[in-house]
Write a structure and sequence with these properties.
260 residues; mainly alpha; 10 helices
């Protein structure tokens, strides 16, 4: 309990210092609010966004719109990435077959696929989900593959001595020990996918007036920097909450596997 309080206190102090530095820069240098508004203006904008509609709704509507797009792409990345990574780590023929294609595609920036996503799926959630999928999946595959390869060989040999087949060894030995690395891949995938979501909303928008990317774009078009910065703050907070949630889930699963 004391550790959590210390962490929160430290975070509050850092956040307060950051806000003070931001305010001091705008006040001392007399920065034009069009370029960098003071924090008070941005938080006033946040309060307004929470109650006044912009585009298709208030702030919560835009948050839910972005989360829906992100959840679609990230869920696909998890459904495809974890089994594929496990298969690449456990079955050598699959690894030899998939690795060349994977290594050729992985360096390409996900947003570079946006024109193809629009061509294949149209201006809808599918195009944005495809970009998020490509951003989130590589670290998930890499860490799932690495987790299987790093499984203690002595445990695998012991399971085989007792008559366990490949699938049983994978399910009862490799999977429980792979949880920490798998969640590391998920956390990196969440960060990559969340960043790709905003880029996808800006480049491969579905024509709707919802989403945090839409708010950033509106701030740019109307020269309201406070709107864009307010949306960026919301993006950062949600990204941090997603990471914290995955970290807590990781601890829960590690504790559960330790007991079983």
């Amino acid at each position: 309990m004391s550790g959590s309080f210390f962490t929160l206190s430290r975070f509050a102090l850092v956040f307060a210092a950051w806000l003070f530095g931001w305010w001091a820069i705008t006040w001392v240098l007399n920065v034009n609010p069009t370029f960098l508004p003071p924090p008070t203006t941005v938080f006033e904008r946040l309060a307004t966004m929470a109650t006044v509609s912009m585009g298709d709704g208030t702030l919560i509507v835009h948050i839910l719109g972005s989360l829906k797009r992100f959840a679609t792409g990230f869920a696909l990345a998890v459904i495809i990435g974890i089994p594929l990574g496990f298969a690449m780590g456990y079955f050598k023929p699959i690894n030899k077959l998939v690795t060349p294609i994977f290594e050729a595609i992985r360096p390409i920036p996900p947003i570079a696929w946006a024109p193809f996503a629009i061509l294949w799926f149209g201006l809808n959630v599918g195009a944005q989900a495809f970009v998020i999928l490509l951003a989130a999946m590589p670290p998930i595959i890499i860490n799932a593959q690495l987790a299987i390869r790093m499984t203690d060989g002595r445990l695998i040999d012991a399971a085989r001595v007792f008559g366990a087949g490949p699938l049983r060894v994978l399910a009862e030995v490799a999977l429980p020990s792979s949880i920490p690395l798998v969640f590391t891949g998920l956390r990196i995938g969440v960060a990559n996918g969340w960043m790709a979501l905003i880029a996808a909303e800006l480049v491969a928008g579905d024509g709707s007036s919802t989403g945090l990317g839409y708010l950033i774009l509106q701030g740019q078009r109307t020269l309201n920097a406070d709107l864009s910065i307010a949306a960026m703050i919301v993006i950062g907070v949600i990204g941090a909450l997603l990471d914290v949630s995955l970290n807590r889930l990781n601890r829960y699963f590690q504790g559960w596997t330790a007991q079983t």
